[in-house]
Design goal:
The protein is of the alpha/beta class. It has helices spanning 14-19, 22-35, 46-53, 57-69, 85-88, 115-126, 145-152, 167-176, 199-212, 228-243, 259-271, 284-296, 314-317, 330-345, and strands spanning 2-3, 73-74, 82-83, 97-102, 130-135, 158-163, 180-183, 194-197, 217-223, 249-255, 278-281, 306-309, 324-327, 354-357, 360-362. Helix content is 40%, strand content 17%. Helix 2 crosses helix 4, helix 6 (115-126) crosses helix 14 (330-345) and helix 9 packs across helix 10 (228-243). It is elongated, with a radius of gyration of 24 Å.
């Protein structure tokens, strides 16, 4: 689990932050966790702190030494590190904080430089509200309940933000009663306030575009562990086909951890007797894999195979030909989520109905009318 340093309130201090050593940043992260009342009287051991901060044990040891010098903790050989009583009295005066929980690594391409998070972080900084991030891949396991309980225990005046969370995580927060906002869609049976793009509408619109260009067989690249928004997009796609009585067959390709497996399955679908004439990718990183593969195998886009993507990323904005895709209104989404989180921190009631925002369709250059059998031997 990693915890980011809180957003600096003074922009002039940014240069100092970038010059700080790793142990200085670790010490500041520990100060913030203590201020938020994350652990109570006793701090976790060095192994656990090193894992949470994604640093080495010597770095944790140096950070703890700084806190001891400042009179915040007491270090005694053979005993667990203890918070000084005079410091415990100030825990309940902690300012409001939003804490982002992501069951993934910080380096994941889906969350690196996320525009909604960047906008929200800046807005909370302007209001003097603390910002904390917890990226923890272990939360994606089958039983994260104990870790979540330890994470939330003792925290006061915190609004929890969930991004990319599984149904298990969402259900735990819904049952815990702590202020929680889902940055995305809620899984079936989960009742929490949420802000997301209307992915159902994207699926419906994409199916209409495919029907307009006479695509009868479409390969859908969907994540191996789809989130609620992914399933909503799939539902919109299939319900349009059913309700409009379109003769479109959707072949789902699960994008598991193996890139080779994804491309091998795609190649099989493109070379079959009834080949797919279009590929619809849920995530941008899968679209880039497919795009490169099609070009390497000599297929023309969109003359041989059409491409469209549910999401967009800065990398797609530079792709040639321009990808047919959907652009989410990140700033609008961030502003809405910011207002809801503010209300929750103020103790106001927030409806559990989902807030859905319509994206913009980018026509691009990769969607065209289906040609005659594309499954030619390359």
């Amino acid at each position: 689990m990693t915890r980011s340093r809180p957003v600096l309130q003074n922009p002039a201090a940014l240069s100092e932050f970038h010059r700080a050593s790793v142990s200085d940043q670790a010490a500041e992260a520990l100060r913030e966790s203590i201020r938020q009342g994350a652990w109570g009287e006793l701090l976790p051991g060095e192994h656990e702190l090193a894992r949470r901060l994604s640093v080495s044990r010597p770095t944790v040891r140096a950070a703890l030494a700084r806190l001891a010098e400042d009179g915040i903790i007491t270090i005694k050989k053979g005993c667990r590190t203890r918070l000084r009583q005079t410091r415990r009295k100030n825990l309940f005066s902690a300012p409001p904080t939003v804490c982002l929980v992501v069951p993934s690594s910080r380096e994941s391409p889906r969350f690196s430089g996320h525009p909604v998070l960047m906008e929200m972080r800046a807005r909370f900084a302007e209001q003097g509200v603390g910002w904390e991030e917890i990226f923890d891949r272990t939360l994606g396991g089958r039983h994260p309940e104990a870790r979540l309980a330890n994470m939330v225990s003792g925290r006061r005046h915190v609004c929890w933000l969930l991004l990319g969370a599984s149904a298990t995580i969402q259900r735990w927060f819904a049952q815990s009663g702590v202020p929680t906002l889902v940055l995305g869609s809620c899984h079936a049976g989960v009742e929490l306030p949420s802000v997301d793009v209307n992915y159902y509408a994207i699926g419906w619109h994409a199916a209409g575009c495919l029907a307009k260009y006479d695509h009868k067989r479409v390969a859908l690249v969907i994540p191996h562990q789809p989130l609620a928004g992914d399933l909503a997009c799939l539902r919109g796609l299939t319900e349009y086909i059913q309700q409009q009585k379109k003769s479109i067959t959707v072949v789902e390709i699960s994008a598991g951890p193996s890139r080779a497996g994804l491309l091998a399955t795609l190649e099989h679908v493109l070379r079959s007797g009834n080949p797919a004439t279009a590929v619809f990718c849920i995530h941008a990183e899968h679209l880039l894999m497919v795009l490169v593969h099609l070009l390497k195998t000599g297929r023309r886009i969109p003359e041989d195979v059409s491409l469209l993507c549910r999401d967009t990323r800065p990398s797609l904005d530079l792709a040639l030909p321009e990808i047919t895709r959907y652009r989410s209104p990140a700033v609008k989404q961030a502003r809405l989520a910011f207002r809801i989180a503010q209300s929750m921190l103020s103790g106001h009631h927030v409806t559990q109905e989902p807030y859905l925002i319509l994206p913009a369709f980018v026509p691009g250059e990769t969607l065209a009318r289906a040609s005659e059998p594309v499954g030619r031997k390359i």
